[in-house]
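Hi R.,

Here are the chain sequences for the assembly we discussed:
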Amino acid sequence: GAVVSQHPSRVICKSGTSVKIECRSLDFQATTMFWYRQFPKQSLMLMATSNEGSKATYEQGVEKDKFLINHASLTLSTLTVTSAHPEDSSFYICSGQSWGAGTEAFFGQGTRLTVV
Amino acid sequence: QKEVEQNSGPLSVPEGAIASLNCTYSDRVSQSFFWYRQYSGKSPELIMSIYSNGDKEDGRFTAQLNKASQYVSLLIRDSQPSDSATYLCAAPGSYSSASKIIFGSGTRLSIRP
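And here is the predicted structure of the full complex:
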């Protein structure tokens, strides 16, 4: 399957700071990227959908000013958690899909964010 | 809003036996379904896709789709301890080729030696 690379795999930050997570599609052009959050022992929760070159579409209840998503190229999408708080500590996962390649989603490795 | 339902488990199966995971969905016209495996602390990995009624086999895994009854299942033969994970059933949320995926809540599978 296609490869999606996500960095960093783990990050610890102080409350009030911002953290940027990168998601790259290595061997395909991801026209659409999805960002998920997963709390322990819970299922994936879709946060937002981003299409290359346009603004992201956020799911209900997700603050767009807090979770900034940029998808400036067909191979890179970033999620920035701004003014992080301890309740933002979670496992963040991106996935990429490509037009014409079916509807399968290929996931990055995930980022474990801990806000202290 | 399409829904994908799974029993959360845990499902405990002895090593070497067949593990059977089930999933139902609410949208009668869904065309494709996916099974993902997620180990604790890791991101999901795609293990099976199925697009038409019937069975699809890949190694020890068999996916079964019954569109009339709106269920999809995953059978794991000769279960191994390394199969212990959470299995997520998923379906596209719409018909566009880059649609968001709707995930079930996942079934935790435990293979006991």
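The longest strand of chain A covers residues 90-97. The radius of gyration of chain A is 13 Å.

Let me know if anything looks off.

Best,
T.
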